[in-house]
Amino acid sequence: MDWTSALGILLGTLFFLMAIGAPVAFAFLGVNIVGAWIFMGGEMGLMQLVRNSIESVTSFSLTPIPLFVLMGEILFHTGVAYRAINAVERLIARVPGRLSIVSVVGGTVFATLSGSTIANTAMMGGTLLPDMLKRGYKDSIAMGPIMAVGGIAMLIPPSALAVMLGSLAGISISELLIAGIVPGFLLAVFFLSYVVIRCKLDPSLAPADDPAERLSGWEKWKPFMTDVVPLLGIFIVVVGSMLAGWASPTESAALGAVAAAIATLAYRALTWKNLYKSLIETARVSIIILFVLVASTTFSQLLSFSGATSGLLSIISQYDLSPFWLVVGMLAILLVLGCIIDQVSMMMITLPFFMPLANAAGVDPVWLGIMMLLAMEIGLLTPPFGLLCMVMQSVSPPHITLVKIYASVMPFIIIEMLMLTMLLFVPWIATGLPLLMR
Fold first, then answer.
1. Which residue of 181, 256, 361, 400 is 20 to 30 Å from 114, comparing CA positions?
2. Residue, of 130 and 341, whose pLDDT is higher
3. Residue range 410-422: average pLDDT?
């Protein structure tokens, strides 16, 4: 069977299962069973499917996930994260869509502390979404900013995925981390601008609600200085340990979890009860994530085994493309793959093909690495996989459907595509800080 037929069977089965209402993870599981039977030799293929599933969740590279989730959960259940968000909220006044602005600013601050897109979206969604909906915010302007800013944690250090990409692709990890700072904060500015303009043009999206206007001077700034600034020590511990070469991503994630516990102890907020809650929620969220990773990782292995992946990549390599168009082709493949598989699988599938081609063409690896991270960040939001959309559904009220979630995030996907285009034509946005560092 040629690779186009194999790809058609796998994708056709996937979209059929999703069309009849099967959850994403179970749709992938169904495709995996069908694909293993057809392409991997019937019963032997099913046995291999089980072995692949076990290997996919016992990978050491996944260890930072529960540790970063734990860091976010500790800050969440002790109330320290709430205090930080409330401190940010006090500073924001006289702007349309104030709580949506708070979600972007607060999410960016939390991204610098947790480094976890999942924890960021779950915490901001669980913290702000119910209050926003209660106050009359429309679904689109309430959920979209929370999911969009959740992905920024992939770019702004500490980012376990950036470290993993650097190690697998042979890119300087310190330069890759530094290179993500400017694009990450630019995205936050673009999100803020969109929310303000959209709410200014259509005030019905976000009702007027500005209690922060009644505060002034030190009354507004004191909570920020006491509840936000000290938490930057967590950022220093996580990023500093990696930049200094003292710790691996897993070790830095563990240090971050310990730093979060110490910070909450200093605030006298950590108790045995909320520590227990944090551990239970970490296990729950991690199991959900790992279950999806099992299904999608095995699916990516089926794509490789059936020849579909190599067939797609061969289409790019057989043309004599300039470095610019070669990079465009790579990003196009990542954007397509982001719709159906997870980010770790995307790296594992494409890097063995992309990096030799990029090195031969003389492409700046840091520039390419940042654009790959941004393309994978977009994959967190694009249907049908859209991992952050799944997370948002898990913390949303029952009346919020997946269709509404996808619709709310579409404008922010367009903004991220524009940011990706800017990086293509203005590489200095990504490479400027690493060049200064050199």
1. 400
2. 130
3. 94
Alpha carbon distance, N-terminus to C-terminus of the chain: 51
The answer to whether 407 and 140 are in contact (CB under 8 A) is: yes
- How far apart CA 304 and CA 7 sit, in angstroms, is 10
- Classify 319 as helix, strand or coil: coil
Residues whose CB falls within 8 Å of the CB of residue 414, separated by 6 or more in sequence, listed in order: none
φ, ψ of residue 70 in degrees (nearest 5): -60, -40
Cα–Cα nearest to 149, from 197, 116, 103: 103
What's the predicted TM-score (pTM) here?
A: 0.73
CA-closest candidate to residue 175, choices 424, 422, 369, 416 = 369
Question: What is residue 48's three-state secondary structure?
Answer: helix
**pLDDT (tens digit per residue) in 360-393:** 788 999 999 999 999 998 988 888 777 788 788 7
- Looking at residue 150, the DSSP 8-state letter turns out to be H
Kindly tell me the sign of the dihedral angle through the C-alpha atoms of 397, 398, 401, 404.
Answer: negative
What distance lies between CA 108 and its chain's CA centroid? 12
